[in-house]
Amino acid sequence: MTDWPRQSKWMLGTRVSVVSGDGRSVGSEILAVTYGVPDRMRITRWESPSVVEVRHLGRFVRGTGVFAVRGSSFVWTERISVPFFWPVVRPLFTAGLRYSLRRFARFAEGYR
Known about the structure:
Blueprint: E1 14-20, E2 29-34, E3 37-47, E4 51-57, E5 62-70, E6 73-81, H1 86-109
């Protein structure tokens, strides 16, 4: 879930890169670009291998996100303020996210 450069293998339309730090510690920053929309994040909690929390610092997306492994489940939580155009893109975003999470399950099963 935190192999940032390979996140594009499962997250639809998204490229992620580490822009500051090592990408595996508090204070590191990553940049996700999804269909041209940038989302810069700072890692605020790192409890490897089970919890990573980020603060979204972008112009369009602000708030916090958490990736967590609980037993055999992957839990992704976001508390964000969304842009004014959210009602228009929400149905497509939701469908894309569901698709991406199915891809993540396959990706994780074969991850080396």
